[in-house]
Amino acid sequence: MLDKMLYNTILSQTYSPCGKYLVAGNIYGQLAVFDLVNIFNPVVEQITSDFNKPKHIHLLESESQICSLVTTDKFLIAGTVNEISGWDWKAILSSKLTKPSWTIKIQPQSLIEKCDINCLWYKKDEGKLYAGCGDNKIYAYNLEDGSLVSTYEGHSDFVHCLHSNGQQLISAGEDGLVLLWDLRVKKSYNKIEPHTNSKIARPDIGKWVGAAALGDDWIVCGGGPRLSLWHLRSLDAVTVFDIPDHGIHVSFFQDDCVFAGGAAKHLYQLSYSGDVRVELPVSATTVYSAVYRTSPHKVLAIAGSSPEIDICTSFNYRDQVLHFR
Amino acid sequence: MGKDDVSTKKRRKLNTTSSENTKQSPTDIYKRVIEFEETEAQLRSAEKDSALFKKICHDVRQLFADIAELKAKGTDEAKEKITAKRIEASLHLVALKKLNRLEKVRTRAGRDALHKEKQRVDSTHLLLQNLLYEADHLNKEVTKCLQFKSKDEEIELISMEEFYKDAPIEISRPEITKTDEHQLQLARLEWELRQRRELAGACSELVASKERVAAAIAAARSRLDALAPHLKDVLKATKPLQECLALRLDEKRDETRAATLLSPPLFLLYANANAYSDALGSKNVSVGISGDEDEARRLDQLSNVESELVVSNDSDSDQENNDEDQRDSKKKRHHRSSKISKEEKAEAKKKEVLKKHPLNVQVTITNSDGTALNLIFSYMIHLKIVVVKFTMNFPKPITGVSAADVLNGDCVLNELYVGDTGNDSPHPATAYLLKAAGISENFPHFISEVGKPYIWAQRMCGLDFMAVSVDTQKCNKNFLPCQSLSVASVENFIFTLKRRLKARIDLMKELQDLECGKVLPAKGLLCPVRLSGSLTQWQTVSWNEYSHALSTSFVISEGLVTPDNMLYRAIITRQSAKLVAMVAVSSDYPKQAPIFSLTLHWNGTHHAGTSDDIRDIERVINTNWQNTEKRLCTLSTQMMKLLTCLDVLLETMGSSEFPPDKVMLQSIRGRNRMKPYKYLKQGTGIFVQN
């Protein structure tokens, strides 16, 4: 009988509002809190062998997998199975986790069926939380009172990813669709189907789209189909990135670059024209989460199906490895 | 004119004396003259003579001057006068001569007197010296006397108080002794003498009584000796009766006798194991002693003699080695005629160091189905450790290669306790002892020859080397085996080994099935209806092969699998898909579940390092055991699960080659696109994600 932590898979990460802590959630329903200040500036005299281990590991009551995490000024919001919970940041940083400050339940269609909250997006100016869920829908909640504001339906399978640039929302799903939403309308106004493009499709991996991100003029998406860059207005595939992956789970825009990761040995930084700028080696078999932050540290944390979290401060090479076990 | 008077007088005087002398002894006139002159010289004073001498000299000079003056005149008168004066001067010269002679005599007399005086002083001085010497000598004698020590001072006497208290009044005589110290001493000595005499008498009496008792003992002993043949006869007489009643009394007696000859650690083992054999019945555990009893007896005597020798010098094993060397060399001297080559010598030395006690203990542990493990414990005399050899007995032959390996003695005993591989001596001093004996190989080199020095074997014999290494100096010489340790270890060992044997027999059966390609689930496990994959190969692999597989690097780097595990390769096929599972079974199976590392060959090669699906299956098989399943987590159950997971994985791939056959609620769930590996028994049975 092996320790299940050897097969730990981290699905989500986020930073605390102050940027001093990194929180990671895994499939066993555990939240690990890493003290980044201590990790980046260790006091040499007090350094111990477990300095790169979590400061705390909290086990959620439900013990269901933590699919998504998002930070607001006050709360850490975790999307698990069938529910979204919010904790005060103080509770997270204390050594024992109390009950969540609030909980939003999402009722699945049948009792056996379960609804993962695969993706959370917090829109700060409106105080709204968007949740991409396992029941093919996207929900918008008002965080003031926890009321369901609107439901967006359009996907025919579970939603992998949500992203927004302010006015528009983009979602990617297992059904192979990338949908574009106007937040005021309940129906999607446009869609991309990457698996129908022969240059992009990879039928042996699947048609699912694991990640999509919205830039000012560009969309990047990938999954079973290759990672590709689309023009927002014309919805043409401009660039098809040629990287050796077996499925994309993470992609986003940063510093005029496309960051992408998934079932590959590296996390890639690519130019819009398709050149590979940086290949970051990663510990995880599949990368499920890559989060960056520029203040107070410039830091990129990469996690996935591994107990290890890779930390880069320069975005160019792997600085440190944190152990979530 | 005055002068003339004097001179005449003198002359006269002189003349008279001389005439007297001549008259008295005319024959010896010369002598008389001398005597006379000597007396005269004595009588006359030297000062007066000196004055007379000066006056005569002056007169003579005056005469000479007168003569010279008269000569100058040259007259006759003068000539006459000169003649007169000449005569006068001659007389004066005679007087001078006389004075001179007197003076001479006087000087000689003075010298003689001086000499005489000197001699007297000398003799007096000598006398003084003699007296001084004598005085000195006497002084010395006195001090010698003062320093003289009497013999009685050396005798320890009882104190004064005790003396006055104990001694009878006729000896102590206080009225005298209180005042006279010498008498007191004498009295005390007398008392001492009397007491000593009494004690000597008592002593001789006791010696006599002791001799009497010794004689009585000897007599009793001889009677006892005479009893032995009688008893033997009686025993002989009981034999037919014993046989008749099927009692094993004699055999047991023999074994107990042999047991006394065992080395102390093995004796402990024998005693404790025997007790358990009695308690559990000889069907489960049986104990015996084998080996050369006579040799053991000889060794026992030898060691007794040796221990007496060794006690005096504080020696350790090093010393013993030296002794051996000496003994060896002595032996060799005897056989000098047959020349022994160097290699043979080394060989003999090696044999000596690795020498085992001639008696060993055999413990046989039998399982309920008749499988028996026969362990032979031997004690290495010089290395002071216990080594174990073993054989297995099976009631029926085992089919299958890998299955047979599982029940190989080596494998059964491997890591019976955590970390105890028996591959090196547990005694910290072994390496040193070997080196001291000039053997370059280390102990593991000899293990195949002598047997394995498992730690449990040492503990069963009450040897605890942890304690020795902590406190080497104290215990090195002859640490005694610890009884309580042996008692606890024997019990623990017997039950651990029985459990291990049972587990191994179960595993062997499972492996037999697996080798035939049969995967039978343990009873009571939830099991889906149809399994499409089939086990096509099951075989043992070497560590080399195992470690070179792509999928195993993770478990090896985590230290979960070591070369001590039993390693297998299973190949499962379903149509074009081929799953290779590297299986590591720990010695502690089934306490520790086997570890599976998978590689899937379908649409490329996938393993946990490249594919999350494979990693998920590994997670399910290696870790996901609910409490109810824990006790059933056998190899076959895991294989069953593996087959199920493979089916689930292939059927969710969406390939037409593998049509979905199982009921799945959601074939893929979550961002990690998890497949439903978990089986729920609802209705016909459905598969869900965790």
Automatic annotation (TrEMBL), chain A:
<dbReference type="InterPro" id="IPR019775">
    <property type="entry name" value="WD40_repeat_CS"/>
</dbReference>
<dbReference type="InterPro" id="IPR001680">
    <property type="entry name" value="WD40_rpt"/>
</dbReference>
<protein>
    <submittedName>
        <fullName>THO complex subunit 6</fullName>
    </submittedName>
</protein>
<dbReference type="InterPro" id="IPR042626">
    <property type="entry name" value="THOC6"/>
</dbReference>
<dbReference type="InterPro" id="IPR036322">
    <property type="entry name" value="WD40_repeat_dom_sf"/>
</dbReference>
<dbReference type="InterPro" id="IPR015943">
    <property type="entry name" value="WD40/YVTN_repeat-like_dom_sf"/>
</dbReference>
<dbReference type="Pfam" id="PF00400">
    <property type="entry name" value="WD40"/>
</dbReference>
<keyword id="KW-0853">WD repeat</keyword>
<feature type="repeat" description="WD">
    <location>
        <begin position="152"/>
        <end position="191"/>
    </location>
</feature>
<dbReference type="GO" id="GO:0000347">
    <property type="term" value="C:THO complex"/>
</dbReference>
<keyword id="KW-0677">Repeat</keyword>
<comment type="similarity">
    <text>Belongs to the WD repeat THOC6 family.</text>
</comment>
<dbReference type="GO" id="GO:0000346">
    <property type="term" value="C:transcription export complex"/>
</dbReference>
<dbReference type="GO" id="GO:0006406">
    <property type="term" value="P:mRNA export from nucleus"/>
</dbReference>
Automatic annotation (TrEMBL), chain B:
<feature type="region of interest" description="Disordered">
    <location>
        <begin position="1"/>
        <end position="26"/>
    </location>
</feature>
<protein>
    <submittedName>
        <fullName>THO complex subunit 5 homolog</fullName>
    </submittedName>
</protein>
<feature type="region of interest" description="Disordered">
    <location>
        <begin position="308"/>
        <end position="351"/>
    </location>
</feature>
<feature type="compositionally biased region" description="Basic and acidic residues">
    <location>
        <begin position="340"/>
        <end position="351"/>
    </location>
</feature>
<feature type="compositionally biased region" description="Acidic residues">
    <location>
        <begin position="315"/>
        <end position="326"/>
    </location>
</feature>
<feature type="compositionally biased region" description="Basic residues">
    <location>
        <begin position="329"/>
        <end position="339"/>
    </location>
</feature>
<keyword id="KW-0539">Nucleus</keyword>
<dbReference type="GO" id="GO:0006406">
    <property type="term" value="P:mRNA export from nucleus"/>
</dbReference>
<dbReference type="InterPro" id="IPR019163">
    <property type="entry name" value="THO_Thoc5"/>
</dbReference>
<feature type="compositionally biased region" description="Polar residues">
    <location>
        <begin position="15"/>
        <end position="26"/>
    </location>
</feature>
<comment type="similarity">
    <text>Belongs to the THOC5 family.</text>
</comment>
<dbReference type="Pfam" id="PF09766">
    <property type="entry name" value="FmiP_Thoc5"/>
</dbReference>
<dbReference type="GO" id="GO:0000445">
    <property type="term" value="C:THO complex part of transcription export complex"/>
</dbReference>
<dbReference type="GO" id="GO:0003729">
    <property type="term" value="F:mRNA binding"/>
</dbReference>
